[in-house]
Amino acid sequence: MEHQPNTSTPSLRDVALALTREFVHRFWDADLAWCQARMTSACTWVGAQEDQRACSPDAFRAVAERMGLQRVSVILTNEEYEVAACCDELCVVTGRYLKFSYPAENEAMSQWQRLTFAWERSSKGPRLAHCHV
Question: pTM above the 0.90 mark?
């Protein structure tokens, strides 16, 4: 029997894991347009600080811009992402990573970040419906 290559589309589970990792990297690279384009119109985002809450992609961008991502260069390491729950329409990914500042930055920073992302299936591919970091 001849081996046939797998031509099926990736599962929501696989795509959600990959998108979570990419979202984290693009967020810290200040690629907010890419991040916004992956959100549902009613996406809720809850950051680590009291003033880091948003209920739309535009509000998310405003909060992220206030954080000054363009001025902060970080290195991400020890990344761990896993699917906590997944069904036909929704996939929840949890994870953590260690971020620390580049040695050339004016301030030293090292911090573990935990996250929960909820990805909804859509006609445009999975979209982020909720994010808690």
Answer: no
